[in-house]
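Help wanted!
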Amino acid sequence: MTTLPATMFATVLTQDGYSGEATGPYIDSAGDWLAEVELPVPEPGPGQVLIKLRAASVNPSDIHFIKGEYGQPRVKGAPAGFEGCGDVVATGSGAEALRGQRVSFVTAGSGAWAEYVLAPAIMCISLRPEISDEDGAAQIVNPLTAMAMVDIARTTGEAFVVSAATSQLGKLMCGLGRDLGLKPIALVRRAETVGTLMELGASDVLVTTDPDVVIKFANLSKGLKPRVFLDAVADQLSEQIFCSMPNHARWICYGKLSPDLPTLTQAGQLIFLGKQIEGFWLTNWITSTPPADQARVVAEVQARFADGRWKTDISKRLTLKDVVSSLANALTKRDGKVIITP
Amino acid sequence: MTTLPATMFATVLTQDGYSGEATGPYIDSAGDWLAEVELPVPEPGPGQVLIKLRAASVNPSDIHFIKGEYGQPRVKGAPAGFEGCGDVVATGSGAEALRGQRVSFVTAGSGAWAEYVLAPAIMCISLRPEISDEDGAAQIVNPLTAMAMVDIARTTGEAFVVSAATSQLGKLMCGLGRDLGLKPIALVRRAETVGTLMELGASDVLVTTDPDVVIKFANLSKGLKPRVFLDAVADQLSEQIFCSMPNHARWICYGKLSPDLPTLTQAGQLIFLGKQIEGFWLTNWITSTPPADQARVVAEVQARFADGRWKTDISKRLTLKDVVSSLANALTKRDGKVIITP
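Answered by r_m:
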């Protein structure tokens, strides 16, 4: 067995629990929420593995979490970061099969923004050699969410709506939708991204800053009849889009990029048109989806990264020691993920 | 065959289509929306019956409808009124079996606030002799809605929440819930109705004007874990109640008594807690529920009225010729239905 060091560098949470606010996945300074510390290297318990980090990715959920506005309470002093890729260097009982493997992982309790990370064995996916560390670092949260949500959309018809479509997740869903013969209608903020989205698989792209966006969407909706709205923004425009969809439409909120709170302007949309508003959280999907179905989705995700249909666009690379000083600035770069390496 | 008159007195709509507004089931003067006219007595087409009115009831949906804020467009010059009770005096082809019967009915196209009414035979229920005309006049919309919604609630656990619980529908649901061994949590506006609701079947009653109502509800919710909120109000307090319910709770909006528009203050309720917001409309239930299940529900409704477990509380009786002049004032009477007779 490799000799492990006694301590490790980690970027840890400086606050406990929930903030009680919802101001969005934006920060002025990572130092408001995170600190650099030297921690003992943790030991894996039953069903856990210890992973030496190769790369971690930064998702909007990580930022919501460090600010105390995510679905799990913070634990002060624990490392931040949900997702990454690395080598399994120690295993608890029942997890021995993963020893020595390069895996994608999602953490529970001990975050990914550290030199060593504890993860449950069931939240690790052994990586095929063709997959790069950077693709491996963003292999679970966005790709599984994309697959699971497009799976919902395809049961309701051909067309579906994707907001924040230039996000990594939005791009994955547009490509996946096109490959499945569906029509993804993409909502973007900037007109200059329309061409990219069309190339990636969107059947139509609307720009949310266009004053006529709701009218244009309503016209499109009459023809295409999208019945699922996969929405990461959840502002008043989202509500207007929902109200312009046909009967039995579902507004599925999976993120909250806008701090603005939407008002429900038309109760009749729910009552008479049989529409509904719901949420999607990968954690709930994992606990409620049979393992065989999950395995099928995981295999499809790896196949798509291995053959190049999907890739992770990188906007900025940071080392662990840059996170506190440079993460806020790195997050201002658009259209890609921030990747953290040891 | 009884000789029918050539014309009839009717209270008709003065406007077409939708208003585009949602100001609630309140009017200052019925004359803003309705007029008194003499119309030809209609002839039943295939599958239709002609009914000589005994009594019609006034539901909030009737008021939403005449104002153009219901799920169906108005037709100027057509009689208003959805629901009533009367004698079948003529039948179209395929509806002969109903000839001569006293029925509860819901209209389609030709409203109930007239001396003679056209109704689809499939929207008529032959009445048992023990049931009074007034109970017969309110036998479908509220009772079927109550049965169908409590049926949804009982699949999710023991407790459920009912707003506007002093409405006829609210009272039906509290009694039905108690009889099924469930715990209806009633929300009322006035403290003096608490005792009545407890007697009728509510397990707990909260007063919405109490400044601590949300805190009190949250405490109750922790213990009872209601997962369905049957809501006819749909204002900001409704949203706060929803946010205080446990995970996987469903906010089922079936009415819009408040003109205030609720803001969704916590996207995390949808995303992380798996809650959802939806609607209920009896018309959709009728078109989507198998006939055998509907027949079971209809039989149970009649049994409950026949043996006195349910009754229609009357707040005011009007004749057809009083509707335009007196309906607005009659609707200010609380805790019962306005009944219209020929």
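OP: Thanks! One thing I noticed: Chain B touches chain A through 32 residues (CB under 8 Å).
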